């Protein structure tokens, strides 16, 4: 069987895109705070007081990944865990003042990085590209959710 053209394979292109994003992130945004960590911190800036499960859903992180991200941000003093007064079994997460300052700094850097990342595209192409990425990502997450749903019958 002949080799296939991987430039027609979305997974191959997505991996290349992720590699480029990672390189830009570590050189232009932060070597210490990862993109998922920034995403979680950003979600808590928008909605302080979310529980771990909910914030993970907001930024599309699985349970084990969100637990690790929360642990790292908490150890760095960027978020704090506060016991929920209505349900003592769970913790609510909030950015600390240092976390808010780091978020402000990284938000500026992220905007610059995104400008560089998308620079090969015109403004109109960027809008279409981001819309397409969102649609494909949403569909992939829906498939992943369907795989986890219990079978009915």
Overall description:
The protein is mostly helical and 153 residues long. The chain is 65% helix and 8% strand. A three-stranded antiparallel sheet has the order 1-3-2. The longest helix is centred in the C-terminal third of the chain and has 26 residues, at 123-148. The mean pLDDT is 93.
Q: How many β-strand runs?
A: 3
Tell me the β content. Answer: 5-15%
With strands numbered from the N-terminus, the spatial order across the biggest sheet is: 1-3-2
| Element string (H = helix, E = strand) | HHEHHEEHH
Number of helices: 6
Indicate the radius of gyration in whole angstroms.
18 Å
Average residue pLDDT: 93
How far apart are the first and last residues' alpha carbons, in Å?
A: 41 Å
General shape: globular
Q: Report the oligomer.
A: single chain
Uncertain segments are none
Structural class: mainly alpha
Biggest sheet architecture:
3 strands, antiparallel
Helix content: 55-70%
């Amino acid at each position: 069987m002949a080799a296939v053209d991987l430039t027609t394979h979305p997974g191959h292109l997505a991996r290349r895109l992720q590699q480029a994003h990672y390189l830009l992130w570590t050189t232009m945004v932060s070597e210490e705070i990862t993109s998922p960590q920034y995403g979680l911190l950003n979600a808590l800036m928008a909605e302080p007081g979310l529980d771990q499960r909910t914030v993970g859903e907001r930024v599309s992180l699985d349970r084990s990944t969100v637990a690790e991200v929360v642990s790292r941000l908490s150890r760095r003093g960027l978020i704090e865990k506060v016991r929920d007064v209505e349900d003592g079994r769970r913790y609510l997460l909030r950015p600390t003042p240092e976390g808010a300052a780091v978020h402000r700094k990284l938000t500026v850097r992220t905007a610059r990085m995104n400008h560089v990342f998308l620079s090969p595209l015109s403004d109109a192409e960027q809008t279409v590209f981001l819309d397409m990425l969102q649609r494909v990502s949403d569909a992939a997450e829906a498939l992943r959710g369907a795989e986890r749903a219990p079978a009915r019958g």
